[in-house]
Amino acid sequence: MQCKKEEYVEGNIFHFYNRTASGKLLYRCDDDYLYFLDKFRSNNEKYPCEVYAYCLMPNHFHFCLKQNSDQPLYRIFNDTLTSYCMHYNAKYKLVGHLMAGKLQSRRITERSYVLQVCRYIHYNPVKAGLVEHIEDWSFSNYLEIIGKRKGSLYSKELIDDYPEEFLDYEKNIKMYEAYVKDTGFIDILFDEG
User: Is the distance from CB of 59 to CB of 26 less than 8 angstroms?
Assistant: First the structure.
């Protein structure tokens, strides 16, 4: 799903995601994950946003972001992905497209959906079988939210604006994990009710 350009206004919150073409790896080693995050971090100065949640997976990524300027927020990914893909192709001596298609985005309009999307994003590595516990995955900002790591891609505004949902996020995730076991993982993302 693609958001319309007129939806990209200051204060709006979005879930961005994309995956690679043909199941290729987006990140082959820790340095690749870190390079992507470094590029995203530096582009955050040009396209100010609050980073509510992110998770980098071997073949895709998810971000939940709040736009903090009149600059359309999808541009942060245009710049980040252009730079990252050029670096990746040069590093691994590849040519052609790395990503499967256009960046996907969905505007979040319901307060409860912010929590739902953040939990979905952070739970990805567990669901994919990459780790047993969310806190064991290094390439998300889950540890920042629960106060176990200091990082720059984390918004304190998240807890200030959503105290009931995020003050005890660790407990909230445990409840979510139990819920996921009883329902379909993908269904949760699109169930706004």
Answer: yes
